[in-house]
């Protein structure tokens, strides 16, 4: 298991509505101790990445070349995610735009050698709420073309476990729902990204669902919280039983990477970002050593 982090560890700038680019983020992640990365492309939706430009393929080539120079591997990616409810877009133009950036994100994932692209499942709400059949049918409608493209690009699709919020259920928040969704596609290049923080919000015991999910888990989002809000804390700053989590991952034979999805640097002054990232890497190495 390799320690990894999302590229957005160095994305946001305190007090500014602009983002640090991928290449600078990669260099700083490498300097902090991360050789493996998750290419976070969620900021494509508000149009704040290099991949929103017309020359997005050339931008991906530059990132690939820089990764080779730095000795960095991209093992996961996080394409832009749809609003959780389905249907959800206000206009056809908005939906077409989202479909285009999703298509780009999958192609870019393939160009950079990503093994697993993580997608958020959607929740059906037009014909029936809390219906497994409706939810699975909606996800097939949304993701059929994405999965077909991903197969051509040699990228696996991992559905992320969700967490209920605002007193509303979200499909994919439970082990049984995710297993049913993955099984419904009958594709070996599909699996689950287990978000440990989401699991802590949904389950009183964050270890048990990992064991129940077992070999379905192909990717991880690693972060801590206190069981309520999605805080995206560094491990050991929340209430998660990390010793138990690491033991469970070892028991199920998890073969992927240990990928941070933390907000440590989101509001940090730039002068403190690098030392904060090194602190996070030290904690990550401690945890990975347990496996």
3D structure, described in words:
With 291 residues, this protein is an alpha/beta fold. The chain has a single domain (3-288), classed as TIM Barrel. It contains nine helices and ten strands. The strands form two sheets. It has an eight-stranded parallel beta sheet with strand order 9-8-7-5-3-2-1-10. Helix 1 (22-32) packs parallel to helix 2 (56-70) and helix 4 (132-152) crosses helix 5. The longest helix has 21 residues, at 132-152. It is globular. The mean pLDDT is 94.
Task: Summarize the model shown.
With 291 residues, the protein is of the alpha/beta class.
Keywords, please?
about 290 residues; two-stranded parallel ribbon; 8-stranded parallel β-sheet; TIM Barrel; alpha/beta
